[in-house]
Amino acid sequence: MELTQVRYFVALSRLLNFTRAAEACNVSQPALTRAIQRLEDELGGPLVYRERNLTQLTELGRAMLPHLDAMLAAADNAAALAEARRRQPMASLKIGLGPGVGASAIAGAVREIATLMPDLMVRFEEAAAAMLVESMLSDMLDCAVLPADCALPERFNHWKLYEEGAVAVMPPQHRLANAASVTAADLNGEVLLHGERCGGFAQALYAACDGAFRLRRCDGGTGHMLDLVAAGLGIALLSERMAVPSPLVTCRLAEPPLSREVRLAAIAGRPQGPAVAGFIKLCRAGRGL
Q: Quick one: CA dihedral 282, 237, 132, 157, positive or negative?
């Protein structure tokens, strides 16, 4: 059953005249007649009959009309919805998060955009800086929040967002769990978990203190590393802006002072939708950070 057959039959049922129905559908009368005959073949019986100059629906035609009319209305509604979405696509915000950068740092800015655009679709991608750069170049990401030490091609704009220090993340039963802050001396002999997505704080501390700690590599997401911390496999050094779930506790690393600059990057000159443009503007203004 073809939609054109249904459309022709519904027009004929309203006008009850083959000539006027063909004109309304912008087809020739023979073409409309053939389409109605094919529909009758598929439904197993005549849908209309002619009596002299009058055209009437058969019992089968009257029974099928509400269903075929609803089918046609549903198809028209679907086409109208698709056209509306095409003319006004859903607002989206695709943000890359570099090593050790959590979404909580920019969640306030995202919230402000979502308040103005209730249908906003938000997607985060965590990866190494080089991979995020490639994703932006291929238009898979709108922008990315990256450590300032990562290399960016010349065609990128970038803006400083904030500087952040490090905290030691440990289970609640750890000997240092009640301390407000810790130093490298306090952590002497501890196992420090590190990986490509933890932000590099553990490696920096290890280098600054000439290997006074043991390093245990833990590749994967930050959540996986926190699971190992909870299991007692070591301590993680993460950004002070990273959201850490309870019952894990955080202690500020006071000595040596480790910090890094974090910036927002986007491709210069690329057209941006209102969600992306608004997000970048808020971040540059320091709102929601």
A: positive
pLDDT digits (tens, 9 = 90+) for 193-206: 998 888 889 989 98
Last residue within a domain, chosen from 45, 71, 87: 87
Beta-carbon contacts of 170 under 8 Å, excluding residues fewer than 6 positions away, are 176, 177, 229, 235, 248, 249, 250, 251
Place of tokens 């089918």: 71
CATH number of residue 240's parent domain: 3.40.190.10
Instruction: Decide: pTM greater than 0.90.
Output: no
Domain that holds residue 239: 164-258
Q: Are residues 140 and 176 in the same domain?
A: no
Residue with tokens 């959201």: 243
Number of structural domains (the chain) is 3
Whether omega for the bond prior to residue 256 falls within 30 degrees of 0, making it cis, is yes
Residue 238 lies in a domain: yes
- 117 and 199 co-located in one domain: no
Q: pLDDT tens-digit profile of 215-259?
A: 999 888 888 999 999 999 999 999 999 989 999 999 999 999 899
Whether residue 74 is predicted with pLDDT greater than 70 in this model: the reply is yes
Identify the CATH number of the domain in which residue 15 sits: 1.10.10.10
Task: Give whole-number Cα distances, 33 to 11, 20, 62, 70, 197, in Å.
Answer: 12, 12, 18, 22, 68
The pLDDT value recorded for residue 212 is 78
